[in-house]
Amino acid sequence: AFFWLLSLLAASLLWSVSVQLSGREDAALLLLGAAAAVLLQELCRFACFKLLKKADEGLATLSEDGRSPLSLRQMAYVSGLSFGIISGVFSIANILADSAGPGTVGIHGDSPYYFITSAFLTMALVLLHTFWGVIFFDACERRRAGGLGLVVGGHLLTSGLTFLNPWYEASLGPIFILTLGTGLWAFGTAGGSFRNVLKCLSCK
Amino acid sequence: MITFMNNSDSEEEPCNERTSLMSAESPPVPSYQDGLQASEAGEAQAHRKRRAGSSRGPNNTAGGETSASGVPVRESALENEEEELTLKYGAKHVIMLFVPVTLCMIVVVATIKSVRFYTEKNGQLIYTPFSEDTPSVGQRLLNSVLNTIIMISVIIVMTVFLVLLYKYRCYKFIHGWLILSSLMLLFLFTYIYLGEVLKTYNVAMDYPTLFIVIWNFGAVGMICIHWKGPLQLQQAYLIMISALMALVFIKYLPEWSAWVILGAISIYDLMAVLCPKGPLRMLVETAQERNEPIFPALIYSSAMMWTVGMAKPDTAARGPSQQTWDAAEDGREHLRSPSHAESQMSETRSPVPTRPVTSLEELEEEERGVKLGLGDFIFYSVLVGKAAATASGDWNTTLACFVAILIGLCLTLLLLAVFKKALPALPISITFGLIFYFSTDNLVRPFMDTLASHQLYI
């Protein structure tokens, strides 16, 4: 969560500086700011990976049997989850606070479904961050650039899709499909398979 | 200061050892006795608490030293194991501290957001005489710096006073002071708080009910904090009084002064705990030399090694218990570690030498804990509460400060595990918190607001 906040800080700094320099606020700058934020987030995810790896090695050397008590997958899951949680909370806390207050949604011509779509989007984003965390760490561990590229690409795609936002069919639909796909991929990466699911369900 | 034993600082002490994560028990300042305003007394209490906030790192080492003096060989052989154990328990300690700090912050933020009394400006404390309603920025800055200087000097004077009292064994005075301040905190501030909460939610309550509720709350609190009581109840009370103290600060400190004071207090904490002549360090070392627990009313302890006990100036009675402790230590070498020794020490100190045998048994089963001064709780909550109160929006800033403080606490605990002596708990957390507050408020907020208005997600 701390790392995500750092990335957010850096991105906002970049955006503010660019706004100041260009002297006007417009959508293009916002797009740039959002893209920068995504890239910085992935960078911070990488930094998180490095740090956790080092801590893991330290724990392993200290423990009695040479293995660390935490597996890399657990760390990946936790890191992804924490990124997701802080990202989700930052996205939705203010909206929730406003939703408790007086007002009419969409009175100025915006969509009246603002709150509910925000809720769904935030949920999708939290899940996506968790999945991306697992995939990212796994890809870094096995040094596969494909996984990394797909995570970054997926993130950029998601963020870009939200730019289509009042047109909810175009943004929510693909984002959910993406979430599902990424989830299945992360599940596969973490070692799950159809057989595992069956075994789990039949409680053997 | 953070020590392996978490001592909560008594909020009431004007002496501020506050920020040390030590189990420093700062003697409560009987500010109330002077008939100061409630807020001032609260200030004094806060000061005291701050002082108590020192962590008991040195206690650990001192305990370790005393116990290890007889068996240096075993000590060296067990060092690695101890390190490992320390690091393993480190994570547990972190969690044990996260929960109370989080709870305190939640209480403060919830109150700030709902009860409007605490964000209204109704005057200032006598410790911050300069007003901030001046027209020019420079004047305002100057006033806040002057306020900070006055406040910090009051804290320093109180801390030194406390340390002197402790050094010259004026235990009765210190105890009376602590009792008086916790009395005021538990009764007066709770009364005000309850009144405001009831007003906010428009709930009517008659005076007899109020009297019964507050009387019970205060009486149980006094017993729990200063004598014996279930650990969780004691922890809950300490959290509540820290929150009350923090709320008083948030209400009565003018804005810029609050931020400058937070910064100055971290620096003070750093110096008071680490410098060889620092008052907090001297307090901890004296306590360790005498093998006495630091006053329990000032420190939050996460593990129940002992119940809070009045330290009776009865060294004779303490003698045998001390010996039993050492015997226990020798007998259980595998568990020997600095924090263990320290907790043992705190054990002996707290329960007052009344039940050496039983406490020994308790000790055998208890885990080691970490101690955090109450002053640390208070200042963390002040930072987060101020962020919630004055940030122009919003929950993002509050959350960012919250995460920053927790990460700072983590780092400090890590350092504690590495250095194994009393460390100041405030500097890292407050620095992170301040950085995140100002940056989030000014940089992140416009960004996030613009994104949210277009419903864009990053």
In words, what does this structure look like?
- The complex is a heterodimer of chains A (204) and B (458).
- Chain A has 204 residues and is mainly alpha-helical.
- Chain A has one domain (2-201).
- Helix content of chain A is 79%, strand content 0%.
- Chain A is built from seven helices and no strands.
- Chain B has a domain at 91-300 and 370-454.
- By secondary structure, chain B is mostly helical.
- The longest helix of chain B has 36 residues, at 79-114.
- Chains A and B meet through helix 1, helix 2, helix 3, helix 4 and helix 5 of A and helix 4, helix 15 and helix 16 of B.
- Chain B: The chain crosses the membrane at residues 94-112, 145-166, 173-195, 207-227, 234-250, 256-275, 399-419, 425-444.
Tags for this entry?
heterodimer, A: 204 residues, mainly alpha, 7 helices, 79% helix, globular, B: 458 residues, 3-stranded antiparallel β-sheet, 16 helices, 3 strands, membrane (chain A)
